[in-house]
Amino acid sequence: MDSSNPFAELSASIAPWLIQTYVIVMILLVAGGTLYDIVHKGSARYFFESWRNAKRKGSRQVGGGTMVGLAIQTAAVDVATSGEFCNPRRRIAHLLTMYGFLAYVITTVIMVFCYPTTASPTPAILPMLWYIGALMVCVGGYWFWFFIRVDVAAEGNSPFRIVRADLFILSLLASVTLGLIWALLLAADSAWTTLFLALYLIATTVLFGSVPWSKFSHMFFKPAAALQKRVAEANGSRSNLPGPAEKPEVFGSARRLPRHY
Q1: Euclidean distance between CA atoms 79 and 73, whole angstroms
Q2: Assuming Cys at both sites, which of 65, 133, 158, 166 could form a disulfide with 100, CB separation 3.0 to 4.6 Å?
């Protein structure tokens, strides 16, 4: 991994303000796409209606202290450690992708806005974290794509079968992979740098511009849904579902563990 800031190196051929403008546009696309998704699908209305129904049908009142505790549990278990995944392989792959993406995006923003040119030396830790985050996304993402997906692992479909639901993971992997290749070619002063920069920008634009049609916005919805589920369990409404059985039925052969998700 190179310890130089690839975006500062890029400023030699592209004005820093253009790079910063592109990043701002991507942020606006995510915000606008998420708001459009909320309005178009009625997610916010459904969430608040479910919240009111659960509160009305609950057999117990959830106090402020309990609510704070549930919010902390949601952040620590459902968000920070992806506790919703029972399958350990999928959980690890998800954590690698999530934390890698966060490191990748945060260091990108810092390097682009705080150290836009080589005139302001970039702390070596930032490019290192950028590369590590990108590699974590690749490891977790490709592991999920080729070995963990339900329709591949459990249903026997080809890993190259693509449906609309795959738009987010594919555009994410394309963006990060092409970004890694571009940065390495830039450091090596390769003639292929411009081509891979163009491909990198196209893939990144698709990733952040396709929020209304991909699963990108789920990362904002899932914590709210996880908190709502905990509140429904705490007040006794259970979202109109029966309580857990004392001896849950076990599916699958006794000789082989089930692979459903």
Answers
A1: 9
A2: 133
Residue range 6-236, CATH number: 1.20.950
Q: In the chain, where are the structural domains located?
A: 6-236
- Nearest-angstrom CA–CA distance, 46 and 66: 24
3-state secondary structure of 69: helix
Q: Among all chains, which residue has been given the structure tokens 């459009």?
A: 36
CA angle 141, 221, 129 (to 5 degrees): 40
3-state secondary structure of 89: helix
Q: What is the pLDDT of residues 149-188, one digit of tens each?
A: 876 656 667 777 888 888 999 999 999 999 999 999 999 9
Radius of gyration of the chain (CA): 22
Q: Do residues 146 and 152 touch, judged by C-beta distance below 8 A?
A: yes
Contact between residue 104 and residue 130 where contact means Cβ atoms under 8 Å apart? yes
CA distances (Å), origin 50, targets 15, 34, 175, 220, 243: 49, 20, 36, 17, 18
